[in-house]
Specification:
By secondary structure, chain A is of the alpha+beta class. Chain A folds into 2 domains: 167 residues, D-Maltodextrin-Binding Protein, domain 2 (3-Layer(aba) Sandwich), CATH 3.40.190.10; 206 residues, D-Maltodextrin-Binding Protein, domain 2. In chain A, 48% of the residues lie in helices and 12% in strands. Chain A contains 18 helices and 8 strands. In chain A, strands 1, 2, 3, 4, 5, 6, 7 and 8 form an 8-stranded mixed sheet that branches. The longest helix of chain A has 20 residues. The radius of gyration of chain A is 25 Å and the shape is globular. Chain B has a domain of 178 residues: MetI-like (MetI-like fold), CATH 1.10.3720.10. Chain B is built from 12 helices and 2 strands, in the order H-E-E-H-H-H-H-H-H-H-H-H-H-H. The relative contact order of chain B is 0.13. Classes of the chains: A alpha+beta, B mainly alpha. At the A-B interface, helix 4, helix 12 and helix 17 of A face loops of B.
């Protein structure tokens, strides 16, 4: 079709601009409820749009989706300047703790929210993660990452190792790894750091804290860290790790090619493996509880309302729909492998169903047990820097043969220097 | 077509106001995006502030942030990393790009622009794409670089590594790997700078030298190099500033952490992590001003080194 100039004169233009003006003003007037989220919580929120529209016809759901690190940088900026705040923000567990102490998020334990009345409905450790030292509840858990040990049955069989040998104790786990390496050539774990990470989180007493206790005492130069460093050193010394960081090409290729025999992670990893990391290894993996029946969690998502949100009442409606409504939680579990934080869903028949990727194992029952037994770890605002300090000293132990005691003393001193400020 | 004037007289530009109005876009943008962030970061350097707690939680702490940074062993480690990377990635850039520019200048006629374009391409490619490409090239078990080295082993049993090299996981390999990527990226940019300078050297200088019997080497050392001096100063200044602010390449190649034992953590990266990971904007601002002092000092020294001496030129 040949292009012709639009047949409108000055009057038509005036009419057009008036129409555009009307459109803009109507757009501004149509109320939005803004949800800022990262994958895959963004698609879970999006799939709730139809249900939301039924309940609140006048309000559109506006999902602002960003990549994981971008999302949290944007939320930090929004909170620091109190501008461009969404009505609801999705937060990963590490950031809940960080934001909780700073007072930028609405305390949901107060009226009209009164979330504490519903505390018993949630997985206990997840609810505690959302509770600040002051007692304020700043977020509501929606999905959790109960810890699990995924392992390759074919590699274990080849090495003549049973699941019991692998998981009875951490020392036994490392010994089994040596046998697996000798017989199959596969690494026990991607990185020796993983070993340290799980040991420092195992068997924590309530209120003990990971790096710093609730009185501000630094806990690095302790037997807990010494055991963690010692086991990590053994793993590296016997070449049982591939020095592979998670989410890299080596990592995914290692799973695809059967070069990594086990992986400690949140239950959600089985879903990622099945969907994109290593679908061709279907049936070869099984899940077990972590060795020594240690309980730990990897990740977890929460909904929070910033204090500056203009639509707090509606935001609360939305959060309740996503976290307290069993059908919504179950749907997210089925479609996105988001393990529900709502206990009611844990009784659903879906948990009894076999998981094809894990060779028909009913692994969700294991994960349910882990979710119930996991304790919440107290968080401290210096945790990110403490983790960096510990990781750097561990690097020195693993690569340069630094003495473990000296490394722990140095790490302790470095963190104490920061904690004094 | 004549249109009736509807604009009121008071909005008409006069000769007095025109310069201000025309300058306004720049001045406003500079104030908002240039001066304000500078001033704010200087202000922040004297505050203790956790950003997610909101703007009103700032606390004046005087020089504490600077004192902390100067006694912080990670700051000095990051400065050493930065200096190493700036030197090892920077010096070869100029040692290679000057001869390369001369070669392209003399050897290519019709294809010259295409050749320059090929060398310039890395400079305009997105850093993220570059870092992702090199991450997979440097991969220990599956990377092309190690595969190549292993293939080379069959021909050259000595001098090539026996086992695959862990480029980005082993502390002593991280810096050379990053330096190589930075070198690869900026060598073309410098070549273009030097090519531009070469084109301004009068041809009759070379003709006269040839008549006097000077060979190509002598012409290079006594005509080309001295004439390039202003451009070398410019190029080295840019390299020093860029090298000291190095952030993107090491950040992406080391997964944002700086790698094993923070071997690839530059000062700019440490600054970023202090702000956004460790949530301490005050110290991060102090670090940025300390880095500025270092950059300014080194630029001044370069300026002194290249200043014409004696009889003046």
């Amino acid at each position: 079709m040949p292009l012709a100039p639009l047949p409108i004169g000055p009057q038509g233009l005036r009419a057009l601009s008036a129409a555009i003006g009307l459109l803009i003003s109507s757009l501004v007037q149509a109320e939005n409820l803004t949800i800022a989220a990262y994958p895959a919580v963004d698609s879970i929120a999006k799939s709730a749009a139809a249900e939301w529209k039924k309940k609140h016809p006048g309000f559109e759901l506006k999902i602002v989706s960003r990549s994981f690190p971008d999302h949290h940088t944007a939320m930090t900026t929004a909170l620091s300047t109190s501008s461009n705040l969404p009505d609801v923000m999705v937060l990963e567990v590490g950031y809940v703790a960080r934001f909780a102490e700073n007072g930028g998020l609405q305390d949901l334990s107060q009226a009209p929210f009164n979330i504490k009345a519903q505390q018993a409905l949630f997985v206990p450790y997840a609810f505690k993660q959302a509770t600040a030292r002051s007692g304020a509840v700043v977020a509501v858990p929606t999905d959790i990452g109960p810890g699990t040990l995924l392992y390759r049955t074919d590699l274990l069989k080849k090495a003549g190792i049973t699941e019991a040998q692998l998981t009875s104790s951490w020392e036994g786990y490392v010994q089994s790894g040596a046998q697996i390496k000798a017989k199959t050539g596969a690494y026990l774990m991607p990185h020796a750091r993983d070993m340290k990470d799980i040991i420092i989180r195992s068997n924590l007493q309530a209120g003990e804290g990971l790096y710093i206790d609730n009185k501000g005492k630094v806990l690095i130069n302790t037997p807990r860290f010494e055991r963690a460093f010692e086991l990590a050193r053994q793993v590296r010394a016997q070449k049982l790790d591939g020095k592979i960081n998670a989410w890299t090409t080596e990592w995914t290729e290692g799973f695809k090619r059967g070069q990594i025999a086990t992986q400690m992670s949140g239950a959600w990893l089985a879903g990622h493996m099945n969907n994109w990391i290593a679908p061709q290894t279907k049936g070869l993996w099984r899940a077990a509880q972590l060795p020594e029946r240690s309980w730990a969690s990897w990740g977890g998502s929460f909904y929070a309302i910033p204090k500056g949100s203009p639509n707090k009442a509606l935001a609360w409606e939305f959060i309740q729909m996503m976290t307290l409504q069993a059908d919504m939680q179950l749907q997210a579990f089925k479609t996105e492998d988001a393990f529900p934080a709502l206990l009611e869903v844990h009784k659903d028949a879906f948990l009894d169903q076999p998981i094809e990727f894990l060779g028909g194992q009913k692994a969700r029952l294991l994960w349910r047990e882990a979710a119930q037994k996991t304790a919440a770890i107290d968080v401290h605002k210096l945790d990110p820097i403490a983790e960096e300090i510990v990781n750097t000293e561990l690097d020195k132990v693993l690569d340069q043969g630094k003495d473990i005691r000296a490394a722990l003393q140095d790490a302790q001193a470095l963190l104490e220097r920061r904690a004094r400020r | 077509m004549k249109t009736p004037s509807t604009s009121p007289h008071r909005w008409r530009l006069t000769a007095d106001t025109v310069p201000y109005v025309l300058l306004a876009p720049f001045v406003i943008l500079f104030l908002v995006f240039g001066l304000f962030p500078l001033g704010f970061s200087l202000f922040l350097a004297f505050q203790s502030w956790e950003p997610s707690a909101g703007l009103n939680t700032m606390k004046f702490v005087g020089w504490e942030n600077f004192a902390f940074a100067l006694e912080d062993e990670w700051f000095w480690k990051s400065l050493r990393n930065t200096a190493w990377l700036a030197l090892v990635s920077g010096v070869p850039q100029h040692l290679v790009s000057i001869p390369l520019a001369c070669f392209i200048h003399n050897a290519f006629k019709r294809w010259r622009n295409a050749v320059i374009g090929a060398y310039f391409l890395p400079y305009i490619t997105s850093t993220v794409a570059i870092a992702m490409m090199f991450s997979s090239l440097f991969s220990t078990d599956y990377g092309l670089i190690n595969q190549g080295l292993m293939a080379l082993q069959a021909w050259l049993p000595w001098g090539t590594p026996q086992a695959p090299t862990d480029w980005l996981g082993q502390a002593e390999n991280i810096k050379p790997a990053i330096a190589f990527v930075v070198f690869w990226r900026y060598v073309g940019f410098n070549t273009v700078l030097y090519l531009a300078a070469l084109q301004t050297i009068p041809k009759d200088l070379y003709e006269a030298a040839t008549m006097d019997g000077a060979n190509a080497w002598k012409q290079f050392f006594y005509i080309t190099l001295p004439s390039l001096k202003p451009m070398i100063f410019f190029g080295i200044t840019l390299t020093i500033i860029g090298g000291l602010q190095l952030f993107e390449e090491p950040f992406i190649l080391t997964g944002g952490r700086g790698g094993t034992d923070q071997a690839g953590m530059t000062t700019a990266m440490y600054m970023y992590r202090t702000a956004f990971e460790f949530n301490d904007f005050g110290t991060a601002s102090a670090l940025s001003w300390l880095l500025f002092v270092v950059v300014a000092l080194l630029t001044w020294i370069t300026n002194r080194a290249f200043k014409p001496r004696g009889g003046g030129a």
